[in-house]
Amino acid sequence: MTVHTPHHQDALTPYDAIIVGAGFSGLYLIYRLRQIGLRVRVLEAGSGLGGTWYWNRYPGARCDVESMEYSYSFSPELQQEWEWAERYAGQAEILRYLNHVADRFDLRRDIQFDTRVTAAHFDEQHNLWQIYTESGEQFHAPFCIMATGCLSTARVPDIEGLEQFQGPQYHTGNWPHEGVDFTGQRVAVIGTGSSAIQSIPVIAEQAAHLYVFQRTPNYSIPAHNHPLTREEQQAIKARYDEIRRTARESLFGVCFDPNDRPAATATPEDLQQAYEYRWQRGGLSFLTAFNDLLVNEQANETAAEFVRSKIRAIVHDPAVAEDLMPTTYPIGTKRICVDTNYYETFNRANVTLINLRKEPLEAITTHSIRTSKGDYPVNCIVFATGFDAMTGTLAKIDIRGRDGLDLKEQWNHGPRTYLGLMSAGFPNMFMITGPGSPSVLSNMVVSIEQHVDWVADCISYLRAHGQQTIEPTYAAQDAWVEHVNTVASYTLFPKAASWYMGANIPGKPRIFMPYAGGVNVYAQKCAEIAANGYTGFVLHASEAVALA
Ligand code: FAD
Ligand code: N01
């Protein structure tokens, strides 16, 4: 750990770093930056901490990376003492965990809730970030860290007549804290992504009738969720260090037990056996059944067809089964879903699937959803329509760098970052799991810890070497953006109209935003760059004019 060398601004600024967001990222930032002697302030729009797990309280919300891995690794005591109740923790349990972390490490005193940041401007004269909030408050600090999340701007699509609807409307990503009672209700769910696939089976158990409006079917693998026994937990805890290391050194940041053989050369029996084994085990590791599923279209099709065969076997009505089968994109190129009784739910008498490819959604009326075939009267609407992912939350903040450079404008044709950590022209502004880093393709807690550690080490380095600012060069950024694109072009990811590609937001540039090269390769690059004195970055020692 680097010792804190007093900074010339210390006496003049109450904070060394302003952090935006109090989810997994913001919380670990407080812990880690305090460790190196920084005075930090977290500004959080919500009235509580937890980020994703504060906002997404829809029925059935839970993680799809197993709880014992979807958790912090920075404290051996924490990971030994916390007891996860289920293989895949529900939203309430994860939120409880994050609150426990905040209390245990006394993080709460550095968080200011109900504070939405509207602008962040770099003041070149003083080398300070000026941060403005919705309520008119102003903060400044030498460092600004955007821990604003990849999936934190919920999006309701523009559907004609939406404002006329007389009943309640909900978005999964902004769910009422008091919950929603669907008893006796005719409910519409629009969307069939991960949020919908988790909530549909639970809502169906309560609603009088559930109408599921599906535009694109998704591939979903059963979670086989279950309570974790003491013995299961102990077995993992006994090897936790090794498990965490294996996760960090893997492609996705998870111990998936990947098979390093290709499907392309496997026999039909081998394929069937491998997929059946992974299906029975449940969860995201299905995609690591063979090593070529995300790069070879024919290989991918064998996995896709296996899932379709399962849908055929589970869903009683062959026409409904057919409608539920994804056929227009390779499996895994949209985030694969992990469910509990999703396909089975369509065997219920009170559930109707509406295939919007066959009968397009035309409008919302005062009491119904109208497709080309007619009106479906409903009492309430659940929008499970996703997020303006990866860039949407940053784009809502007026971020200005050197010479008044506007981040949104700089990213007009797609996000431009170096390592997904910084953007050229925006000194001392870091992003946690920014576009161009593995982020949403990984177990995000692993990626968050890696980013936060890198940022803390970087700030320590600057201080130890008497440097005031750091920013990437345009050349390094251009090369990284090209590398991110090249790696994506070797994969099947660009073949789907996914939110990874910005395809869910009209007018958003179609660029594959996360880095597909793997958590392991990426972390090694970041470490090498730091070890070589921050290759591709410019560090400035110039004394800024002190604030009057
Ligand atoms: P977030 O948790 O999104 O927190 C960002 C915070 O920033 C929010 O609280 C937000 O209010 C705040 N904020 C944003 N803008 C502003 C502003 N302008 N001013 C002030 N505050 C602001 N990932 C996995 O790896 N495994 C999973 O199983 C998994 N499950 C998920 C389930 C759901 C339903 C969703 C939506 C996402 C899931 N994810 C999962 C991704 C998840 O977002 C990350 O794992 C992780 O929680 C992100 O943490 P974060 O702190 O980076 O961002
Ligand atoms: O959002 P999505 P999500 N008319 O964008 C449909 C994480 N997460 O909230 O595919 C009709 O995936 C849209 O249809 P189409 C995870 O990373 C994890 O479900 O665009 N339909 C799609 O079906 C995930 O990927 C978990 O044709 C419209 C759906 O809405 C990410 O968050 C749980 C429409 C949106 O799906 C986002 O998931 C939840 C319109 N106008 C979330 N507009 C776990 O399991 C959109 N749709 C851990």
What's this model, at a glance?
This protein is of the alpha/beta class and 548 residues long.
List keywords for this structure.
548 residues; alpha/beta; FAD/NAD(P)-binding domain; 5-stranded parallel β-sheet; 16 helices; 31% helix; binds flavin-adenine dinucleotide; binds 3-acetylpyridine adenine dinucleotide
* Residues in helices, as a percent range: 25-40%
Q: What structural category characterises the helix and strand content?
A: alpha/beta
Number of helices: 16
Shape: globular
Question: CATH homologous superfamily of the domain at 12-153 and 389-547?
Answer: FAD/NAD(P)-binding domain
Q: What is the level-2 CATH architecture name of the domain at 12-153 and 389-547?
A: 3-Layer(bba) Sandwich
Q: Bound compounds, please?
A: flavin-adenine dinucleotide, 3-acetylpyridine adenine dinucleotide
Work out the number of β strands: 21
Q: What is the topology, as strand order, of the major beta sheet?
A: 3-2-1-7-19
> How would a crystallographer describe the biggest sheet?
5 strands, parallel
CATH topology group of the domain at 12-153 and 389-547:
FAD/NAD(P)-binding domain
Low-confidence stretches: 1-11
Strand content: 15-25%
* Cα radius of gyration in angstroms: 24 Å
pLDDT average, as an integer? Answer: 96
- How many angstroms separate the termini? 33 Å
The CATH class of the domain at 12-153 and 389-547 is Alpha Beta
